[in-house]
Amino acid sequence: MKTPLSTLHLRRATSLAEALTILRDEPRTPVAGATDVYVQLNFGTHPATRFLDIWACDELRSISVRDDTLVLGALATYTAMLASHAVAARLPMMREAARQVGGPQIQNRGTVGGNIANGSPAGDSLPVLAAADAVVVLRSHADERRIPLTAFYTGYRTTVMRSDELIVAVEVPRVTGRQFFRKVGTRAAQAISKIVVAAVRDGSSARIAVGSVAPTVVRLRETERALAASASLDDAMAALRAEIRPIDDIRSTAEYRLKVTENVVRRFWLASI
Ligand SMILES: Cc1cc2nc3c(=O)[nH]c(=O)nc-3n(C[C@H](O)[C@H](O)[C@H](O)COP(=O)(O)OP(=O)(O)OC[C@H]3O[C@@H](n4cnc5c(N)ncnc54)[C@H](O)[C@@H]3O)c2cc1C
Q1: Pocket test for ligand 1, best of 43, 106, 129 (most atoms within 8 A of CB)
Q2: CB contact burial 154-175 (16+ within 10 A = b; e otherwise)
Q3: 257 CA distance to ligand 1 centroid (A)?
Q4: Model confidence pLDDT, tens digit, residues 47-66
Q5: What lines the ligand 1 site, CB under 6 Å?
Q6: In sequence order, what are the residues at sequence separation of 6 or more whose Cβ sits closer than 8 angstroms to the Cβ of residue 184?
Q7: For the chain, percent of residues with pLDDT exceeding 70
Q8: pTM for the full model?
Q9: Which fold does the domain 178-271 belong to in CATH?
Q10: Residue ID of nearest Cα to ligand 1 atom 52
Q11: Which residues pair with 77 in a beta bridge?
């Protein structure tokens, strides 16, 4: 049942400092573009009633390169990432992911910080960030800490983030090698992924991350090791089959997800020689 709006309480912060002070003093659920939060309120599945709107915290919106690291502010939208020369030059797989997220309305409002914090295993930016060894920057009123994206999730939609913290940015070190992104869904726009693969090949080494095949985004470390050790592609695919356990759900079957993940990873490896 839809959550009645009259039961909700919203505060707006106009700067990061104000937002962090509010979160220090009272627990509130942050709202950025609201594209996930509104859906959850509409289905009555969001447990929170007290929210903090951070959309006006402009310090979190920038996309920049610092010390050879691409820094995506938490409020960077898919539209902003699509327009960014730095993203196009350094992280084309993110550009490809952003292009395929929802439709223009969602791309205009949806943010990378929201995608990370929401933690859906089907989130399209997450395999990109996992394959790129990205680091999530968390800040509270008291301190700042950096957590590799691959260590950020503790389970299905649970993270190491504390209630007084915000994601302020995600840092992506320079990626060398050819980048690859493939989303498989029922149709190109507005469809949630059945599986999503992001990968980088640099000579004989690969970094491969997959979404929608486990409770969290996963790096295929065993498959990566097999490819780096010059195992045959068939042997590497045996490693892949052993390290993911996709689930059956309303969007797809486990068998389909496993087969398609294998096909996509094969295609990535053969196409990126
Ligand atoms: C029609 C439609 C299509 C969609 N298509 C796709 C798709 O193709 N691919 C895809 O991956 N997603 C898709 N989504 C989901 C959604 O748009 C994305 O996950 C988006 O990136 C969420 O960003 P947001 O700013 O709107 O998050 P919000 O809804 O504002 O927040 C989501 C969660 O993150 C938390 N949060 C937000 N920002 C921060 C922060 N800075 N620090 C800490 N916590 C924070 C909130 O508390 C909330 O729990 C779709 C959604 C809709 C409605």
Answers
A1: 106
A2: eeeeebebeebbbbbbbbbeeb
A3: 23
A4: 888 999 999 999 999 999 99
A5: 29-37, 39, 74, 101-102, 106, 109-111, 113-115, 117-118, 123-124, 166-167, 190
A6: 193, 194, 195, 196, 260, 264
A7: 97
A8: 0.96
A9: Enolase-like; domain 1 (3.30.390)
A10: 35
A11: 111
* Pocket residue to mutate for ligand 1, from 15, 35, 93, most atoms within 8 A of Cβ: 35
Domain boundaries, the chain: 5-53, 58-173, 178-271
Q: Does domain 5-53 have CATH number 3.30.43?
A: yes
Which residue among 118, 120, 181, 216 has the greatest number of ligand 1 atoms within 8 angstroms of its CB, and so is best to mutate?
118
Which CATH entry fits the domain spanning 58-173: 3.30.465.10, 3.30.565.10, 3.30.70.120, 3.30.70.660?
3.30.465.10
pLDDT digits (tens, 9 = 90+) for 110-130: 999 999 999 999 999 999 999
- Tens digits of per-residue pLDDT, 224-271? 999 999 879 999 999 999 999 887 887 788 899 999 999 999 999 998
C-alpha distances in angstroms, 76 versus 50, 113, 231? 24, 8, 40
Whole-angstrom distance, CA of residue 146 vs CA of residue 134: 10
Asked if 233 contacts 207 with a C-beta cutoff of 8 angstroms, the reply is no
Say which amino acid occupies 35.
T
Q: Quick check: helix, strand or coil at residue 47?
A: coil
- Which 3 state secondary structure label does DSSP give 51? strand
